Amino acid sequence: MYRLQSLAARSLIAGALDQCTPLTLTSLTGVRHKSQGPSVEKYGQMRFLTAEAKVSAGRLNGKMREKTLTMDTLNPQVKAVEYAVRGPIVIKAGEIEKYLEEGGTKPFSEVIKANIGDAHAMGQQPITFLRQVVALCTFPELMDSPSFPEDAKWRAQRILQGCGGHSLGSYSASPGVECIRKDIAAYIEQRDEGVPSDWENIYLTTGASDGIMTILRLLVSGKDSSRTGVMIPIPQYPLYSAAISEMDAVQVNYYLDEDNCWALDINELYRAYQAAKLHCQPRVICIINPGNPTGQVQSKKCIEEVLHFAYEENLFVMSDEVYQDNVYTPDCQFHSFKKVLYEMGPEYFNSVELASFHSSSKGYMGECGFRGGYMEVINMDPEVKAQLVKLLSVRLCPPLAGQAAMDVIVNPPQSDEHSYKQFHQEKSSVLGALADKAKLTEQILNAVPGIKCNPVQGAMYAFPRIFIPPKAVEEAKALGMQPDMFYCLRLLEETGICVVPGSGFGQKDGTHHFRMTILPSIEKLKVLLGKVRDFHISFLKEYSALE
């Protein structure tokens, strides 16, 4: 309606102009020029009026111009993409939030979003030193302020010296700021107890997701039975299945062992690989360690078996290690795939192609919005490496604020620096609270009839298995939805708790789960878990499953 009114008004204006003396060179200069046909102004009005007439005629005939981009012409790979973490449940949660804000009433006063690992949105406070350095980089005039410590100023000055025009507003080289890449290499060497790291194998990324997508783009090729197969764990983080769908690759599922705390079984890898070879060409294996959504921390022996498998079957290894700081169980330890590969000897270390990923979004930092991240890529063919650099150059560079944040993460205050004490206290406080919440979540959920939760050894999620009575399964199917989607929607509508159905991550047939983050404050987490407990018992009673 607004557009029709606008067109009508413009037509009236054009008609009025048509009756006025045009503003020509004659009126401006007093010099009359020989007529060369309609004036530019008149010609423009004629074109405009002709176009308006055509639009009006088309509308009068009851026809509308067809859109070029429709669901029929949309890229089919885009239609195949699904991302449960921000899927229908979350959209519904947003609608309920808005309804409550507008004065609507529900059996609850707020929506608690436990669907995504967004630490700061859940109330976690930023690490002071990280924000100080990024603030100084963003607004260098703060260098004169006594409110900022010298160790933060020194780091900011060093980062800015590596930026064009000494400004965070400039582009960097496509792989990232050189001094930051060197700091990351030094961090990796220290983390891996002396395993060498070449800074030229380090690439800054827009979060870890950007790096993962980039490497997959290099790997995906072929048609029909030669299409690239991508081996991913089930349950998995939906980025992987979404990327595989978008790139029209073949998803090759290998199932984690839920009965063994989501451990990776080497026999399952071989089973999945052999089955996939019948219809595609497996070229890459992805591992998430610590696990998302499952929260397990893989043992060194398990990692050795995976790397030996990749060596034997000539697979590219992608190791998603964004939760490397999030290990809570005392008898668990994070082992980087690169370090384990090095310890397996030169035959492995000099041949297995490996890309490892890290991010500013997780760990103790939780700086999701900066979109900071990096990947280290080793043993890549030099010609392919040049293609990687070319691909990275298309996106110009990652955000420099995110690069600066990543630098602070790999180059934190040292024990002899002014900011060390506060930094160490804040970091320990965040990780200590997460460890407490991981234990609390496991204990409360396992006390509920019909829920079984493996220990949350690391990362920041629980992935409990839930029993859904047959009658509820039937009702869900009648509504055309997965049983755990039905369960999670009911949970949201009755309690305001937003979690993600396990079907969005993948699970064995006949099992049902949901993923929830352990990020809310301890007080809010207790409320959340209490509501889940009460809802589940009520749900079982409703469907006559609780004796």
TrEMBL record:
UniProt domain Aminotransferase class I/classII large: residue ranges: 166-530
A GO CC annotation recorded here is: cytoplasm
For activity, the cofactor(s) needed are: pyridoxal 5'-phosphate
Keywords (alphabetical) are: Aminotransferase, Pyridoxal phosphate, Transferase
Q: What is its EC number?
A: 2.6.1.2
Q: Does the keyword Transferase apply?
A: yes
Give any single GO term for biological process. L-alanine catabolic process
Q: Does the keyword Secreted apply?
A: no
Q: Tell me where on the tree of life, at the top rank, the source sits.
A: Eukaryota
Name one matching Pfam family: Aminotran_1_2
Q: GO: which molecular function terms?
A: L-alanine:2-oxoglutarate aminotransferase activity; pyridoxal phosphate binding
Q: In which pathway does it act?
A: Amino-acid degradation; L-alanine degradation via transaminase pathway; pyruvate from L-alanine: step 1/1
Homology family: Belongs to the class-I pyridoxal-phosphate-dependent aminotransferase family. Alanine aminotransferase subfamily.
Subunit-level organization: Homodimer.
Biological function: Catalyzes the reversible transamination between alanine and 2-oxoglutarate to form pyruvate and glutamate.
What name does the UniProt record give this protein? Answer: alanine transaminase
